[in-house]
Each structure stands twice: as structure tokens, then as C-alpha cells.
Amino acid sequence: MAPALVWLVGLIVLPHAELAILSLRSRVAPRVYEWSFNQYRTFIYEPLYWHTFVRTALMSILATVCTLLIAFPAAWYIAKVARGRAKSVLFVLCLIPFWVSETVRTLGWMILLRESGVLPRLLVDLGITAAPFEMLYHDATILVGLVYTSMLFMVVPLVSVLETLDDSLIEAAYDLGGNGWSILWKIVVPHAAPGIVAGSIVVFMLTIGNYLTPTLLGGKNSLWFTEQIYTQFITRFNWEQGAAFGFLLLVLATAIVWFGLKLTHQNFGDVMRRA
Amino acid sequence: MQQDLEVDGVTKRYGAHTAVDALSLAVPHGSFFSILGPSGCGKTTLLRIIAGFLAPDEGDVSIGGRSMRGVAPNQRPVNMVFQHLALFPMMTVGENVGYGLARRGVARPVIANRVDAMLKRVGLPGARDKRIDQLSGGQKQRVAIARSLVLEPTLLLLDEPLGALDLKLREHMKIELKQLQADFRTTFVYITHDQSEALVLSDRVAVMSAGRFEQVGTPQELYYQPRTPFVAGFVGANNRIVGKAIRVDGEFAELATVDGLAIRARASGSIAVGDRVEAFVRPEAVAFARDPTELPHAAQHFTGRVESLLFDGANSAVLVREATTRAGVRIALPQTGRFADLKVDETVAFGFDAQRAICFRAGNGSDVS
Known about the structure:
- The complex is a heterodimer of chains A (275) and B (369).
- Chain A is mainly alpha-helical and 275 residues long.
- Chain A is built from 13 helices and two strands; from the N terminus they run H-E-E-H-H-H-H-H-H-H-H-H-H-H-H.
- Chain A has a single domain, classed as MetI-like (MetI-like fold, Orthogonal Bundle).
- A two-stranded antiparallel sheet of chain A has the order 1-2.
- The longest helix of chain A has 35 residues, at 47-81.
- With 369 residues, chain B is an alpha+beta fold.
- Chain B has two domains: 3-230, P-loop containing nucleotide triphosphate hydrolases (Rossmann fold, 3-Layer(aba) Sandwich); 237-361, CATH 2.40.50.100.
- Chain B has helices at 43-51, 93-103, 108-121, 137-149, 167-184, 195-201, 219-224, 229-234, and strands at 3-14, 17-28, 32-36, 58-63, 66-67, 78-81, 155-159, 187-192, 204-209, 212-217, 239-249, 252-256, 262-268, 276-281, 287-289, 300-310, 317-322, 328-332, 347-352, 357-361.
- In chain B, strands 6-7-8-3-9-10 form a six-stranded mixed beta sheet, with helices on both faces.
- In chain B, strand 17 and strand 18 (328-332) form a beta hairpin.
- Chain B is elongated, with a radius of gyration of 25 Å.
- The A-B interface holds A 166, 168-169, 171-179, 182, 186-187, 190-191 and B 51, 53, 73-74, 78-80, 82-84, 86-91, 99-100, 103-104, 147-148, 151.
């Protein structure tokens, strides 16, 4: 218990308390501060900030959904179709990208996608585009990068939850007149719900708090909220504003997760236990 | 009579292994048919072919007079009760029973009525809103059957559904299953490795071994007139005595074991002097006495020593070693309690009528286990 408490208090509660205090201060003169809601007021009255905020949330939700849609068939194949050696090989294939640091992985994407990169040149060589096409700095590029980074965290809980699904339930449903879609909706998804929700929470949290991938792949257009926080802390040296943004991000992410749990009738403790 | 199920020359191979070997069978409407065999005999494969989960390599399956070639499991007038029941844990009892009706697009109020009526018939009124994990083993069994029967299938397949239950509940569920089948008059095809289940429940039983039917008949026929050594050995308890035929007269044959024990038994099929033969004598066909003069006159007599007592209430038996050849014989004890004071190592007499023993020419090593 003690190590967990040290971890929780020392690394999470204390810094956040400090951030909370910081975010509620306003500098009125050099080294003179007073309590105020100014930082939060700035967020509300400056359209760029809350625009970025909403955009980050929507893109993160989209990335989570895309990850789920791609990971589910993959997890199904690993859990239900692949046998023996093929199963472990596929699992390792999901893991291998994580042996490389995120920076290097993202730079790899840049090499592939930039105007003078591998993919645009290939398209020209194949005669599909007349001139090299800049594939970086689009929203779609950011999504691709985020989904790629998140796959493993969706596949693992999905595989573990699908492995516990008894095949005879699927056969029974089929025997009683069910077809592919109805079995997916009535049997497989309800059974996998804790895994789906757990994977989605992890992926969503990783995505909304990601800094590197949106910045490198989206460039100046990425408009990711973590970027605003970074700018306030590091570029502007406005720690008070950065702290307020950090807090807002925490509240936003928590609210979306809570809403998602309500929407899917899942219980947080149950989800974390099953995943 | 209309045949609800006809299997015609069905074969299924897995590589070099033939799981189901050119099997044919017909099950008349409203009857309880069992397929009895040891694990690995191909009975589950046959059941899955009937249900449509496997396609036969050769042959055809007809249900209710209609060929099932190319008909998917969800389109067949067949439902299955799975070995571990496969109830949907994410649904209530009512949703489980109504699942098939909902897939057919039956209107909600109609489903609710039919589910309630069905739950009442299987003795679970008011269980509609219960969760599956709130039910006992026997109740789950009934829900699984109700879930299939509510669809009014031509044929209900049951894949060893009593296997997971403890002994007492299994005995109880046997009776319940028989009553349910009599009540619904649906044709049941039941597979099991438990000969007692097959004998108690069925109108007819097929004994299966290595992908083939050894014998198909009523439980009484299988028990009293087994046609192959496998059936004699598999259905009910039996003493098996292997030897060589030393004399054949009419319908009887005399055989001698390697140790020199000679017995007479009714011959099934042709047996010639010198053939290797297997004889079977049921424990209850062997008369048992302390005084040899008490044994029936017609019977062939032996003496021996009690090796062990197997007390099991009404199924009590005793293991006796024949005095000269040390051959072991299992003998059922009469219910009168006369032998309640029997001791190990006591010298006793036993004998049996040749008419109640049966012998077969041993196969070419294939069916001698």
C-alpha cells in the first residue's frame, strides 16, 4: 500500500495541487500575484483556445473509434482464428512497433509521407499523381499516426476478453436462427463490452494527451491542445495559463470517459478488473 | 410412419481418419433416439453434421423429409442443446428463451407470451427476469431445453447435456428429460457415452464405435441380444471370457481359456472349432451359493473363492476367483440379504445356464479391446 501511496501523492496529487494553485493565480506586477479566475476567463474568451480544445476532443474520439474498428477484427483473428504459433507471432507483430521509440516511429512516418518521401514518389512513378503530393500536415495524417500508436493498447484488452468468449455461445446463437450481424451485436459485443471500454479509455487518454505525434505529423496546423499547454509553459513562460489549460484538459478527458461509461452502461471498476 | 430424421450413407473424414463411416439411420416422428458410444467414436461429429455445423464428405441428411444439403444451421428445423448448455450469460432467462423467436421477427408481445407459456411448461414459471447465474444446474438445463423447444423444431439434438451435472441431479434430470419428451412429443436425438442414460431414456439406441453403428435396437434388445462383442461389452456390466472353441453343437459352443477354464455358451453367428471366441456372461445371470447343491441343475457348476465384496445397495456384487484356473468372475448378489455375512476368502459355488451366456467369434483383432 505504501509504495502506491507514495506514487499517488508524490507524483500525481502534489503536482496537481501545485498546478491548481498556479492556475488560480494572476500576476499583477513582477513577483506580485493575486487570486483570480483570469486564466480560465482567457480560455473562454479566446476562440482559438476553446476551438483547439473541442477539436482535440473530437479528433481523439475519432481516433479511438478508428482504432477500435481496426483492432477488433485483428483481435478476433488472434483470439478465435489463429492457433498455436501463429497466435504468438501475430501478438508479437502488434508489439514490435513499441520496441522503437515514439519519436523514431513518427519520424519514420514523416520519411514515408513528406513531399519528397517514399509514398508520394511511388504515386508519381505509378502515374497516379502528376506531381509529388504532400501527405504530411493533414488531419488524416494525424489520425493515421495516432491509430498506429494506439493499436496495441486496444488489441490487448480485446484479445483477452474475446478469448473468454465460449465458442459454443456463437454456435448456439447460430443454431437458434441468428446470423452474423445479430450474433455480433447480441452476443459478441455485449460479452466484449468491458474490453472494448477499457481499450477505448486507454487509447482515448493516450491520444488526447499525446504531444509528439500530432505536432510532428500535423505541423503548425495540428492545433492540438497539449501544444497550447507546451507553448504556455515553455515558449511564453506563462505557467499560470499553462496550469489552467492542463487542468481543463484533465477535466475534459475525465468528463468524456465518464460520459462514455454512462452511455455504454459500464462500471469503471468492473471494466478495469475485466481488462 | 413419417421419419423425422434420415441419415443416408454419411461419411466424414479428417485426413486419414474416418470419423463417421457410411452411416445410415432413420428416426421416426416423436421418438427418443440415442447414439451411445465411447468418446472419440464419432458421435459428436455425426450430431454436428445433423445440426449443420459440419458438411458430410458423402451422403445426405434429411429432416422432416427434406434434404438438408446446402442448408445452413440457422435455417434448419433442428435445434441443439449443447454439452455445456451455452446459455447466453449476457441475457435474462426470458431473453434466452425468446432469442430464437426474436431472430425470426416475431412481435414482442407474442414473444413475451410464448416465453411465459414455455417457462411454465418446463416448470420455471416467473423465472423470466432472472439472470442465468441465479439458476441451479437443473434449472439451467430446463432453460436450455425451453430455448430450443419454443421454436418448435422437428428435431431436438442433445449433446451429452447431463455430463456436467452431479450424480444425484443427473438421475433426476434423466426422469425429467423423459417426461419432457413424452409431453412435447418432439423427436429427440441424444448422444451420450453413459449407457445408463441411453437405456433409461430411449425408445431406440444405436451403439457406435469407430465411426460405425455396431447395433441399433431397443434398450432391451441391446442388453439381452447383443449382436457384437463390442455391444455385449459396452452395454451393461458383463464378464468377458476369451478362449478357443473346442466343441460346437447346434446353437451352443464350448470354449476353453488358456488357463483351461471350459464353459458352454449360446453361439452368436457362425463359430467353428479352433476359432478364437469371446463369451459374455452378465453378473446377474450367474447363480451363486455357499452349498453347490443349491445351484440350479441345468447350470454348469464351478467353485471358487471370494476375492472382494463390492457392496453397492441394490447393485451389490462379489468378485470370485475360480478355484483351478484363477479366472475372475463378477457375480451380482441377490437382494434378499442372504449373503450379507459373506467374507473374503470364503469358498463358494457358482454356475450359469449356457442359454444365458453368449459367445462370438473374435474379430481379426479389430474389435477385441
